[in-house]
Structures are given as C-alpha cells and as structure tokens.
Design goal:
Structural class: mainly beta
Number of helices: 1
CATH superfamily: E3 ubiquitin-protein ligase SopA
CATH architecture: 3 Solenoid
Distance between the termini: 24 Å
Largest sheet: 16 strands, parallel
Strand content: 35-45%
Radius of gyration: 18 Å
Order of helices and strands: EEEEEEEEEEEEEEEEH
Number of domains: 1
Length: about 230
Amino acid sequence: MVRRATGEGGKRAKGARRPELRLPPLTPWSGGGLEPDGDYDGLEFQDADLSGQDGAGARFMDCALAGCAVDGTALGRARVLDSVLTGLRGVGTHLAESTFRDVEVVDARLGGTQLHGAVLERVVVRGGKIDYLNLREARLRDVVFESCVLVEPDFAGASLERVEFVDCALKGADFGSATLKDVDLRGAAPLEIARGLDRLSGAVISTGQLLDLAPVLAAELGIRVE
C-alpha cells in the first residue's frame, strides 16, 4: 500500500541522514591518468578530463572533483568516501558495484550512468540533470535527491531506505521489484512512475500526487473509469 503524507498509523517517514563533510586542505591532482585500484587521498581534481580512463576498484577519500569530464570512465567497484563531486559531466560513466559514502554530488550533467549493484549511504545529489540513471539492484540508504531532474531512472530490484526526493523532477521512474522503506516522494514534481506501482509500499506521497497517479493505479488494477 502507498502511504499518504503522515504514513500508516499517523507516523511520518524517517528522514534521511545527510553527510557532514569537512574536507581537509587538498593537494592538486598531478594528472597522468587514473589507475585501476588506485588510491587517491586528499586530492583536488579540477577540470580534469577523465574520459575513457580506467580507475576500476580505485579509492577516493577526502577528495574534491570539480568540472571533470567522465565520458565512458571505468570506475566499477570504486569507493568514493567523504568527498564532494561538483559539475561532473559525461555519458556512459561506469560505476557498477561502487560504493558512495558521505558524498555530495552537485550540479551533475550525466547520461546513462551505470550504478547497478552500487551502495549509496549518506549521499546528497543536488541540482543538475541525470538521464537514464541505472540503479538496478543497488542499495540506497540515507540518500537525498534535491532540486535535480531525473529522467527515466531505473530503481528495478533496488533497496531504498530513508530516501528523500526534495523539489526534484522524477520522470518515467522504474521501481519494478524494488523494496522501499521510509521513502519520501512528496517533493517530487512531477512524479511519473512508468513501472513498479505495486512496489511502492513503504513510500509516502501527497494527496495531490495520489490524484495524479489515480489513472495509472486504476489501469494497474484493471479498473475502467468511465
């Protein structure tokens, strides 16, 4: 069942815990290309072109990436910890099975980002636009999507706990086979769900959103409205 604003029994959804980031003084990255299983600690990547590079399994700790190009960058199984990513841009960035913990992603312009099987914990995605975000089978805990546009995000089979959509456009979302707990969708406008309406148990929506979803819910249940 989809819960309304106050949830079942009048209880409100638990809010997401946001990251508390205090980056240390950073050292400019010297360039030279990413390396598989590389270790990057306390570095600033400014306007770096990382397109097509292979950093699979790398660890980024206390880092800032600003204005970087990540077209086709291979970062599968990477770990991004206590870091701020600002103005990333690219298509087809590969981040499958990666880990993001205590991370802010600000004003990203991404398309076809592969995050299937990833783990996101205490992450804020603020501003920007992400098209065709693949979060299949991912685990999201304490994640906030704020003032951003998500076009056809794929949450199929994912686990979402304490996830908030705040002043966020959610277009054509797929929640098929997903598991939701304390997911607050009230700040999503528009809220467009292409698949997985039957998986929204554990979500909170507003009365207005319920009315907007009514035709789709009716079709899902095989109800004719005449």
